[in-house]
Amino acid sequence: xxxxxxxxxxxxxxxxxxxxxxxxxxxxxxxxxxxxxxxxxxxxxxxxxxxxxxxxxxxxxxxxxxxxxxxxxxxxxxxxxxxxxxxxxxxxxxxxxxxxxxxxxxxxxxxxxxxxxxxxxxxxxxxxxxxxxxxxxxxxxxxxxxxxxxxxxxxxxxxxxxxxxxxxxxxxxxxxxxxxxxxxxxxxxxxxxxxxxxxxxxxxxxxxxxxxxxxxxxxxxxxxxxxxxxxxxxxxxxxxxxxxxxxxxxxxxxxxxxxxxxxxxxxxxxxxxxxxxxxxxxxxxxxxxxxxxxxxxxxxxxxxxxxxxxxxxxxxxxxxxxxxxxxxxxxxxxxxxxxxxxxxxxxxxxxxxxxxxxxxxxxxxxxxxxxxxxxxxxx
Length: 379
What we know:
Number of strands: 19
Shape: globular
CATH superfamily of the largest domain: NAD(P)-binding Rossmann-like Domain
CATH class of the largest domain: Alpha Beta
Helix content: 25-40%
Distance between the termini: 39 Å
Number of domains: 2
Oligomer: single chain
Radius of gyration: 22 Å
Largest sheet: 7 strands, mixed
Structural class: alpha/beta
C-alpha cells in the first residue's frame, strides 16, 4: 500500500506529518512511502533525509498522491490537493471539522475517508496518538519563551552588586495541557506563577507545579468533570471577570490558553483589564486562532496597546517550534496507524466498533459517519 505525505501549504505552517524516523518504521511495516518534495523544509528535514529513510520524493502533490491508499497531513489539505486524493483513500490529519458547516459533507462527497485526529477520544489507549496534547504541550512551552523574550525586564529574581531585579509575575489562564506546560516553564525560568481554570481537578495540578490557584469555586465549577472545559453561565462569567480584573492588573505576563471544543474561545481578558495593566506587560494569547481570550487580540499579529501592553496573537503556535512539533505529531500518526495495521495482510482496518476509530472517523465510503456531524443533527 502506498502512503503519501503531503507538503503543508497553509500560511505559517512549518510542520510535516512524517519524519525520517517514522518513515523508516512505516517502510518496515511494508508500506511504500512517498513524500512530496520540500515537505520537511519548515521542520529542517531535507528531501535527501527522507530518501535515505526509504521514501520516494514526488515533485508534485498529484505525483505524491497517485495510487495512495493512505495520506498523512498536518492540516486538512487545500481543495486543490484534496481533488487529487484517490476515492476511498484514508486521509489522516487535523481536519478542523468544526470550522465550516459544509466541510464534512463535502469530504464525504469527494469519497475521501477522513480520520480527524482532533476528535480522538480521551482514553488511556489513545494517549500516545493524541495530537492535541502533543502540540498543546509545545505551544505552552513556546508561549512562555516568546512571552519572556517580549518582556523587557528580567524573568527570575537576580541579586547583583547594583541591586536586586524582582522576579516576573506570570498568570496562566486555563490549566489544560498547554497551560500546565506554561506554568512549568515559567517556574523553571524563575517567575512567580499563578493560574486559573474552571475545572476543580485543575486546582491540585496547578499547585503541584508550584503555582498559586486563582479561581471562582462554586456549584457550577463542580460540574466541570471532563477533559475539556464546557461553556459557563453568564453569572459565572461575571464572577470570574471581577476576579480576573484584580489578578490581571498585578501580573507582568498573562498567558491565555482557554478553549471550548468546537466553539469560539471565551473572552476572559477585557479591554478594561488590558488598560489596567502596567506598561511593558505582555499578553500571550494561545487561543488567538479561535478568536482569542483577550478582547484586544488581533489574530495573527503582535500589537502594542496605547498603554504599552504587548499582545502576541500569533496563529498556529505549535508551528513556531516546528522541528519538535513535527517529531511528536509524526509519532502520533505512526502510533495511530500501527494500532490498526495488519502487517501480514498488508491492510489497514478501522472497525466501526472500535472506540478510537469511531471517535475519529468523519467519513467512510462517501457517507458522513461521525455522530456529531450526521445530517439529521445538522439543525
